[in-house]
């Protein structure tokens, strides 16, 4: 990470050191900053892994995360919605520990380790959790439902990338330049992507993205929409995300956001808005640390 991009006065919480045992029982230092109240110990009835029947349990499930990362928040939401017991390992991305590259060679959070098997990439992790653990199904079991959710994943990607471009702009990767809040094309593109998503909600009957019950599609989009909403409220008085920027009435996407925010999992998984805003003002980035890997791979 270039020193100029290093968050010297990082707003991250103070860290403490724990011990982490790898599969080969080698002790590795792990930094964690989660208050003990957030290390979840759910009732065993909520923490049943599908493969419990084969003798495994969810107790050794470790979730590598960063408190501000929207991709990691997708996974937190999925774990909470499923009611899976897990241990959180907060990775200090501003001073990434070397041992973390053994977990994910790209050095990115989130990662999930369970039964000696590590999964990376947020969407893959969410799908893995849904498949491996008991609890409410977050992808429909019928092929038509699965196709619908896959299609919505693409729309979510579209909205997320348009939102990031509108709010943070291309230059965010370099930590330089002004944010793109005023770029008319980026704004129009973002608005169009919101309208499209609202139409999709209508098409499937709402109120969730894929119909009447919550699915992974809702969970992968929510962290980004919360961040966009927060940023727009802070910096724009002429744009309301819940009205797609222009409509008089609250739109399906606005209703969706209100509905999602009321879910207990969403409340528990939400990042601290003050820290998110502080980081946005500092880095002009809403996927806060991604520009670091972009820098590494682009140079
Ligand atoms: N495509 C990845 C993106 C993950 C990602 O970009 N994570 C950021 C934090 S929000 C990260 O770990 N950055 C560290 C780095 O770039 O070195 C996913 O969906 O899991």
UniProtKB/TrEMBL annotation:
Residues 59-137 form the GST N-terminal domain. This is Glutathione S-transferase. It comes from Cymbomonas tetramitiformis. It comes from the Eukaryota. Gene3D superfamilies: 1.20.1050.10, Glutaredoxin (3.40.30.10). Residues 142-285 form the GST C-terminal domain. One of its GO terms (cellular component) is cytoplasm.
């Amino acid at each position: 990470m270039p020193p100029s991009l290093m968050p010297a006065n990082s707003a991250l919480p103070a860290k403490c050191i724990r011990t982490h045992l790898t599969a080969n029982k080698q002790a590795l230092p792990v930094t964690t900053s989660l208050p003990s109240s957030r290390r979840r110990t759910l009732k065993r009835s909520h923490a049943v892994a599908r493969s419990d029947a084969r003798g495994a349990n969810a107790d050794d499930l470790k979730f590598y995360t960063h408190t501000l990362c929207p991709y990691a928040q997708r996974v937190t939401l999925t774990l909470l919605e499923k009611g899976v017991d897990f241990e959180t390992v907060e990775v200090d991305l501003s001073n990434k520990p070397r041992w973390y590259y053994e977990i994910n060679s790209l050095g990115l959070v989130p990662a999930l380790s369970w039964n000696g098997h590590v999964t990376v990439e947020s969407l893959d992790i969410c799908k893995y959790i849904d498949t491996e653990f008991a609890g409410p199904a977050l992808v429909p079991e019928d092929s038509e439902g699965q196709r619908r959710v896959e299609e919505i994943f693409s729309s979510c990607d579209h909205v997320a990338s348009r939102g990031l471009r509108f709010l943070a702009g291309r230059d965010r990767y370099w930590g330089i330049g002004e944010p793109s809040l005023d770029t008319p094309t980026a704004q129009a593109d973002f608005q169009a992507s919101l309208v499209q998503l609202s139409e999709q909600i209508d098409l499937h009957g709402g109120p969730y993205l894929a119909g009447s019950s919550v699915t992974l599609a809702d969970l992968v989009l929510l962290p980004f929409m919360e961040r966009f909403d927060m940023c727009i409220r802070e910096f724009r008085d002429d744009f309301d995300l819940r009205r797609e920027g222009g409509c008089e009435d609250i739109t399906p996407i606005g209703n969706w956001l209100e509905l999602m925010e009321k879910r207990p999992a969403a409340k528990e998984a939400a990042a601290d808005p003050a820290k998110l805003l502080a980081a946005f003002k500092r880095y002009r980035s809403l996927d806060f640390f991604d520009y670091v890997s972009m820098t590494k791979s682009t140079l």
